[in-house]
Amino acid sequence: VQLQACGGGLVQAGGSLRLSCAASGRTFGTYSMGWFRQGPGKEREFVAAIKWSGGVTLYSDSVKGRFTISRDNAKNTVYLEMNSLKPEDTAVYYCAAREPFSWGPPQTTAFGSWGQGTLVTVSS
Asked: Residue 94 CA to chain centroid, in angstroms?
């Protein structure tokens, strides 16, 4: 599956952004999806994931309560709604897809397809 992320930008601390990730193909509804991020000088880290059906979500502790992952299988798109943004949320955000009908711990190695990344910059 090919993924295209967009929606990044510059926002002040406390603000909000919504990222989108559009997927190609007719089988989007079989892929569990995830969002990861990589800040300056940091390793790529897990942010959020959603099961192929949309009924189960998972968040990192650092974003829980502030970010919401959702999907619209009819539009082949997964979203990341980010509220109460902090300067430490500054990173390149990547969407990723697992193998069809796969779910489990969100290690980066569990996701086989990656989008190109979209930059989110939060100013203080």
From this structure: 6
Torsion of CA 115, 52, 25, 91, to 10 degrees: -10
Closest CA to 5 of 54, 63, 69: 69
- From 96, 116, 114, select the one nearest 106 (Cα to Cα): 96
**Helix, strand, or coil here: 89?**
helix
Which tens digits make up the pLDDT trace of 79-100? 999 999 999 999 999 999 999 9
- Can you tell me the distance from the alpha carbon of 96 to that of 3, in angstroms, rounded to the nearest whole number? 7
Q: Which residues contact 57 (CB under 8 A, 6 or more apart)?
A: 48, 49, 50, 51, 69
Burial of residue 107 (number of CB atoms within 10 Å: 0-12, 13-18, 19+): exposed
